[in-house]
Design brief:
heterotrimer; A: alpha/beta; Aminopeptidase; 2 domains; three-stranded antiparallel beta sheet; 22 helices; 11 strands; elongated; disordered C terminus; C: alpha/beta; Rossmann fold; 3 domains; five-stranded mixed beta sheet; 14 helices; flat; PtdIno-glycan_biosynth_class_S (chain C); endoplasmic reticulum (chain C)
Chain lengths: 581, 415, 522
Amino acid sequence: MALIEVLHRRATKLGLLPKVIGKLSIVSNILVLISIGLILCLPLDGQYRRTYISENALLPSQAYSYFRESEWNILRGYRTAIEALIDKPARVRNEVISSWLTDFGMKHAVYDNAADGDTLYGVYNSQRGDGTEAIVLAVPWYNTDNEVNIGGAALGISLSRYFSRWPIWSKNIILVISENPHKAMKSWVDAYHNSLDLTGGSLEAAIVLDFPSKSEYFEFVELYFNGINGELPNLDIVNVAISVIEHEGVKVSLQGLNLSEMYTSSYFNRLKTLLFGVKNSALSGTRKLYGNEAFSGRRIQALTLKACGTEGHDITTFGRIPEAIFRSVNNLLEKFHQSFFFYFLVAPRHFVSIGSYLPSAVCLSISFGISAAHSYINNQYITVPLSDNSSILALIIFFGSIAISFIFLQINETFLQPHLMILAFLLISFLPLTNIPQPLITIQPCLSYRLKSFAFIYISLVLTSLLVMNFALAFGMGLLAFPLTFTKSCSEMITFKSKVINCFYLAISNPFIAIFIFVSIFEDDITNFEVFSDLISSFKYMGNWTWAITCIGWFTTWQMVYIANLDTPRSALDGDTKKNL
Amino acid sequence: MHTLTKYLKFIQIIGTEYQTHVVTMRFNFFIPFLLLLTTNYVLADEEKNNHTNNWAVLVSTSTFWFNYRHMANVLSMYRTVKRLGIPDSQIILMLSDDVACNSRNLFPGSVFNNQDRKIDLYGESIEVDYKGYDVTVENFIRLLTDRWPDEQPKSKRLLTDENSNIFIYMTGHGGDDFLKFQDAEEIASEDIADAFEQMHEKKRYNEIFFMVDTCQANTMFSKFYSPNILAIGSSELDESSYSHHSDVELGVAVIDRFTYYTLEFLEQIDKSSTLTLEDLFQYYTFEKVHSNVGVRKDLYSRDPKDVLITDFFANVPNIIPDSSSENESSNKYINLINLAMDQYNSNSKVSKNKDNALSPSVLSKSQNFNNIEYIEDTRTAISSSIKTLLVTSVVTLLCILFYLQEAESSKTFTK
Amino acid sequence: MNNNYKLRLFVLFSYLSVFFLLGVPLWYKLTTIHRADLPITYIKELVDNKLNDVHLKLPIYVDSQINDIKESAILLKDIQSEINDILGKNNAGLDISVNVLDYVKENLDSKNENANQILKIVKGDNNLKMVENRDFFSSTATTVEVNDLSTDYQKSIRELSNIILNNILGVNAKNINTVIASTKDINDGEKTGVSIPYIQDIHLSAILLSGDGDALGWDIESSMSKYITPLREMLSSVYHFTVDSDIVYYNDLNLHSQHAVNESTLAHILDISEISTSDEYSEQIGLTLAIVFPSREVGNNGLEFIKPKSIEKLDGSEKVSNDINWEKYLIPRWGSLIINKYPLKANSYLDEEFLHPIMHKFSIDLLEILGIGSDMMSPYNSLHMFKRSVVLRNLLKSVDTLQSLVRLTESFKQMAVPEQVLADVNTAIGIRYEIINKINHFGTSNGINNNIVWDELVLLSNKLVTVCENAFFDNEMVQQNFFPDEHKTAVYFPFLGPIAMVLFLGIVNMIKDRSHIVDSIK
């Protein structure tokens, strides 16, 4: 108690508190820098941890895998038959494959979906298990690059046949052959949980196989596990997959990086893996969908294994990977719960958990909060009580912005004209430079400050609630929206140059412009103007909430700050100051 | 030993109170005499320190497929103990999970403790007393202290007496002063110590050999305080116990190191073996077990060098051949037997006489019985005929009534 | 301001009253472990003076046929004083006295002649020698031949007293010491581990084992009823037996397994675990008669270590020699094992003649295992002594059990003591009181029937032991899982701590305000 008193006295003597309050904007900026710095610190030695298997039951690679030469012949047979089916329509294809499934005793059915394509799936009931849970082996016929997944399909069928020969399964095995890894797969998953008759219990895990190459060999495996809305599978299954892949002698690549980056241990490689992980997590649903995203939202641990290259290991090696993963998952009695659900892998065998990276997002949202305080306190309107007209007006504008955002949300992607939209927003951002809005719309400075503080509080709340579930989106949105805090109210702007800078900040913190710029620079898989239609379609069909949050969270804030930055007439300004005095 | 300490204390107390020369003189006389008495007593106690029956309590506490090796541990000890002659009625086997019939078992119905799969431990004639969810902390404590409701069957109770040597083996996952039961609860080492104290209080054991194979196993017996308990654990505080090897077909580890080397040692034991517990203790080394095996001897009165393995692991019956002739020593029994025969015969003669006296009336009784039979027949015949008569008369009455009613109603209708 | 203060005071007091008047008693009631109040001091007293309240008075009826009434009265008085002397020197802790009474004078119960223990003094050639006549073997009367009493009268009296104490009543110093000493032996058998301690319910099994699978039959029912049933009837007041028989095929206790079986390695090869299933009967102890025939794998010469011999049988009055091909082994606390030399032929039937010597030997072994029988006394007298010792030992055992119970409840403070235990303890104390009353008041002049009272006491004492065991092994007294006090603080402190803090600070505030108000009034 006494110590606090001493500190308190010292602080008041130095006048610390008023100083800090006066410099709140700088504090806010410093916090953002700290936030970025924390992320940059993570790949440093000592900040990340070595991966380990938390669930003792998993025992990866303890059992010997027998999917070897004799199975390869069977696989070749299926492969040649599948090659003949490439150009056939889906119905014919499904019939032929159904007959193969019947041959080795798999119950099968076709999920008819005219819009997205029919999906054939088979359920193998485990002989001695209790049949309440299932593991899914998913094979999209056309993979995410629209190549025919010949190897994957052949593997899927021969693996199912191989599994049906083993009596050791305690869970059912489901083979899914869908048209594509996004809409078709997702519609099947939704139908499975709602309307399908032939089911095999609750889905525990899903492995999606992607082997498009015509050769029977591959060089390395790319592992994808980012789900929609920042969801990730349990770290245990990712660790099991990586451990199994490396046990087979194959190299694994994460987040699309190349092998030398993955296996050379350096700060920059780890940083790249981490940042790419953040980016992919934020943009998942809009960029290429590999198949595991279709299983998001239902606590199904889904992974995609993509074979890359044409020389090196044979296809049965690739088949042994899902076999070993299935054996491990088979050992479980409970759902995955032991290991982390929020993490980032910085290398195949190293990761950071949420405790390490969360502080940076927290700092971001706090910085917005401090900006809000700055807007509220550091002007002459601090004495104006909260129940003033200006606050009520600010609230009304707030609700109005939300309404506009909702309308935006309903845009159909077919009607969307991205070019027009970007242009329009650019124009709108630079509008205050002209004198057009001035006679029509003027706002009181008090209202301006209140609007800004409410806006920043609002976005701070949005970020806080988004922190844990979708760190990538929260971090990205926070960073990209931060220039909003640099904008100054009209009363503080005198020169034209400062006005230009203001409008510039408004422009680059506009959600759509910002996303467009970001995607153009950093993301290769999405063509820049298509990002919006991708966002909207994934919101509609894949359950991706990014578009909704962008509109309702970010866009609303932008609108409010934009309105707050509209010009205030000089005379009104002087009048106000006279009044208050 | 107990009395000796009491006497020594007594001497101490008196020694401090009385300081006179005379008393000390008396003492110099007294003490050797007392000591003589007490040593006799002590010797008598040690002579009596023999056991007459052997019991084994074998407990596995972990569930799930990947704890296969714990079931294999316990079943291996069960097999050893049965091979050396302890009957099933004196073995309490507690298996907390059924790995033999687990759907993940590539060899259903079998449990192996070695990857060569030569011996099937779950083969024929094993009797599991407590299985699955019955293996709980409460049941284990109840078993040791014999506190059951009346319905508990004998096969599930530990019916030991003061001449029983008990071998208790526990395996599973453990920690500092606790052992995990079924992944849901724990038993503290103090609980086991208190249970042993209750057993000692009621003289339910002669000696206990407590073996535990878990992580940090030595902490489990750190809190014991009852006498005549010898304990051995597989690892020290903050040390893990390791598994020995896995079976690649099953995909799990099949045996723990400590138990593996224990079994290796015990395979050479048969009922006539003279190897001692000290030999067993010397057999464990850090290189083999990869952890520090701990032994607790301070509560045990004998030296492990003098204790045969078969004292705890085997049930060697003491077979006394017939003495050469029925000499005087069995006369006392023969007298009793003859007395019993005489009494019984005289009693039966008396009852036979009584029966004879009654014979004429017996005959007449039987005759009467025949008459009665006959009468019974006629009676039944009469009664049955009366019954039928009644029934028919009632039926006819009803018909008449019905007819009358109908007639009336038809009359009304026609009207 | 004052009103505010009063309101605050009222609120504070109401909180405090709820806290202390309602909360604390509720918490106490819900968290204390129910421990019934056992009569600890009474039991401790019982333990210290184990049999101090027992005053055993045993009557002995002397029928002196060598002298006339007056002389015999003097003889009886002298014997009485000698016996008192001997018993007085023995300070073993048990109060026993013997009443020497005249057989002729007393009006004895004629219905149960064997209830009274009698010493008959007759004239004979030998001096002071017990005669083993028919009375000796079939009644409680012991006859002593006396030639000349007058020479060395004191020695004769002492001899007669010793005969009474040792050979009739069995109350010599050694027996008393062994009864109440802590080693609890009653006979040498228990010291060597052959005989079992007394328990009322015992199961007997007769098992015929054959190494092969051919059908067998045996005359077990008639043999049992002829040889075992009389024993059971005689011992029915102290032991309750249940009997069963069984034939087991393909099991010869592992005898065929090794060729070098000899008597010294027999214990290591024999495997009696298969036939020791105690789950089929409800008694705690089971004794077995096992008759084993090896399987044909041992060969035509049979088991080598068994030598054919002949035993003598008393057939009427002449001794008949019987050739037998089996050997009997006694397994302490388990029963008898008869191992036959040769395997059985198919469809064999064991008749009564074969089973008779086996049954006889088994009866002897049975008595040895039960520990009944005394070298020095007639069978009836040894039975009487056995019953008395059973009662006394049961009394001691019950007090020991109660003492263990009390020690347990005192050392395990966390253990709950249900009301049932208290009820059992009180019942036990009541029964014990009843038994001791009956013992102490036995022998008063009315000539109460001797035998029946001891039988009744045996039943009562067995009931006492059962009640005490029930009290000790009550199934609700499972020691609660170890829950140290640190855990309790850890649980209660975060819950009660803040509330208490708030209340306490509130009180402090109130006091401060009160002083302010007082000051302001001033």
